Amino acid sequence: MSVAIPRREPSFLSKTWSLARKDIRIELRSRDTLPPMLAFSLVVVLLMAFSLPSGTIAVLPRSVPVGTVPSNDVLAGFLWVTVLFAGLVAFARTFENEREAAAMDPLLLVPLDRSGLFLAKALANLVYILTVQVFIVPTFLLLFQVKVGEGWPALILVIFLADLGFVAVGTLFAALAAQTTSRELMLPILALPMLVPVFIAAVELCSDLFAGQGFGQIAERGWFGILVGFDAIFAIVAAITFEFAIDP
Amino acid sequence: MIELSAIRVVYGRTWALRDMSLLIRPGVTGIFGQNGAGKSTLLRVCAGLLRPTAGTVTIDGRVLNMKDEDQRRLLSYAGHETGLYNHLTVVENLELFARLYGESEERAHEVLKRIGLSDRGNDIVGNLSAGLKRRAAVARAVLHEPKVLLLDEPYANLDDEAADLLNAIVSEWSGGDRYCLIATHGAKRVKSFADAGIILKGGTVVSYRIRESAEV
To answer: Is residue A164 included in any domain, yes or no?
Structure first.
């Protein structure tokens, strides 16, 4: 059983990428996560489209009469509620592949820092959420006739930053919830309170973008700093604390 | 030596292991006992996959610590389940673990051939029979040539030919200072080549015999 080829220790990133690629490959083959996420998101966006009067157009907050809610705020909220619940579908399935045949056991013995396991899972989840957003964001903007104008790059940046924080928290709590018998119930209970800051920031920033503001204006707002700060803190905290969630 | 010092595992009110102390020498050690005797629990504790309620496991003088990546590399465990991804092929599973352990992909194919699964390498694991899954699980376990190999019921669903093949692989692998612990009901299959045998009952060791030829 011996082999002549010498062992060469792969890098942390190489092992992490192998694990993330494995999850994506399994998803492409099994289609257990993305189709439900997409179906859920599209149905919610369609239902929301019917709940607002046709021709609703985002307007600047200052032009809204006292006592009413600007439609750009409502639309930004709609978008992120859809992403939030679609993301929870993905997070709930984060460790399903490992659970199916106790594949977590050999994975826990692999000589890779636990943060690598976290990064791999978070990366796969990020891919799933971005994939869903590629479909639902344009659909959403079309259905609600939101004109972002030149704010496209800023919108993509805000979505990406919000996704990073979302995925960091979601993956960590998915690992915690996976240890319990009622994981589908536990995941939202654990994760939602922690996700409040990132979603408020995302809604506020998207609302401004839907109202026609550009990157220069939103970057000056405190919410942008909160979003970046949340991402940095939770990415680090989640990577460090992940081992306590999965270690025996 | 693998040294277990006063290992206690308690699940709620059930004692799975009762302050068990053992000194396991290199070679193949069979662990026998009825259902609920504590065989699987013992293996999981030795693999670091179950934290004991009390006690320590020491491998070659170093206390087992799951944070230590070098120590994790020494261990390999194949439990009741395959530990393989059902939606990947056998080859994809082995290549994944080969990459994680820094082994070549050729090594994955070599192990596959040795365990008699070359012609089933491109089959999806979830579609394999229970016996073939078990063989694939053992292939994954020996892939990185661990120092401590822990096999829980490896003969389940194996026909005689596959069981003999597994024994040949374990015998071949277990030379030098390596350890192999095999938990099984079927003592017959292990007795023929094991260097030691431990019988458990109710979470305690009732018998520990070392083959004379294996004694130092």
So the answer is: yes
d(CA A226, CA A201): 7
The secondary structure of A47-89 as a DSSP string is: HHHHHSPTT-----GGGSPTTS--HHHHHHHHHHHHHHHHHHH
Residues of chain A contacting residue B172, judged by C-beta atoms under 8 Å apart: 1
Amino acid at residue number A20: A
Contact check, Cβ <8 Å, A10/B102: yes
B2-85+146-211 carries CATH number 2.40.30.170? no
Cα–Cα dist A81/A199, whole Å: 9
The answer to the question of residue A187 being in a domain is yes
Residue of B49, B69, B100, B132 best to disrupt the A interface, most CBs of A under 10 A: B100
Q: What's chain B's Rg over C-alpha atoms? A: 17
Q: Give the model's pLDDT for residue A174.
A: 95
Q: In terms of residue numbers, what domain contains A20?
A: 13-51+68-246
Q: Closest to B66 (Cβ–Cβ): which among A14, A97, A247?
A: A247
ipTM of the complex: 0.92
CA of A113, closest CA in chain B: separation in Å?
7
A188-203 pLDDT, tens digit per residue, is: 999 999 999 999 999 9
What six digits make up the tokens of B137? Answer: 């699980």
